[in-house]
Structure prediction request, 210 residues.
Amino acid sequence: MKFTVAIDGPAASGKGTIARAIAEKFGFAHLDTGLLYRAVGRRTMDQGRGVVDEGVAILVAKELRPEDLKRPDLRGSLASKAASRVAAIPEVREALLKFQRDFAAQEGGAVLDGRDIGTVICPKAEVKLFVTATEETRAQRRHAELTAKGEKRTLEMVLFDLKARDARDAGRDTAPLAAAEDALLLDTTEMSIEEATAAAFAAVQEKLRD
Ligand code: CDP
Prediction:
């Protein structure tokens, strides 16, 4: 059986949590596509001694290795910023395209979360969700995550970074962050994790019944 769930949304909207819950409940494989860009961004910074060089980023994306995705520092603010810089480079996106499409087409079902899954990577996905929440809510969630990891950033700094990254992701020319026309919109601002995942489960179950 082939069945693809595409989940997109801005930073810290809850899409990763929902994607993982769907994967677990329905036995689908899960790919956090943000991790690919984070790994490319982080390695590009290492090689450029802190600077994101376009040529280096393209080479890194073409030669991305599985172990690059296992680095422990991919969830930090530095990796977030580097990810959204390299993600705006069309050749970087192109280099990561096949891996994502092959993953989506695997037997047994797959759920992918990112920014362009429903629009570019899997426009024919059986289920498309666009997960959002207000900037303040998302900043609070990300601040709590980073604080738990030991990063010392104020809520204001996190909100500032998040707004800048959203603007870069939504404003780029290639595969900008956008909801697919046929995506189900899920605003998680006032929702608990249980409520959000229940709504997502219902959307998947409905399609599986078809
Ligand atoms: O967890 P969070 O939502 O903050 O970020 P992420 O999903 O890990 O993505 C990190 C960055 O990678 C985003 O800000 C985007 O610039 C980029 N990205 C993308 O361009 N396309 C994707 N499919 C996934 C991530």
User: Anything to note?
Assistant: The chain is about 55% helix and 10% strand. The mean pLDDT is 96.
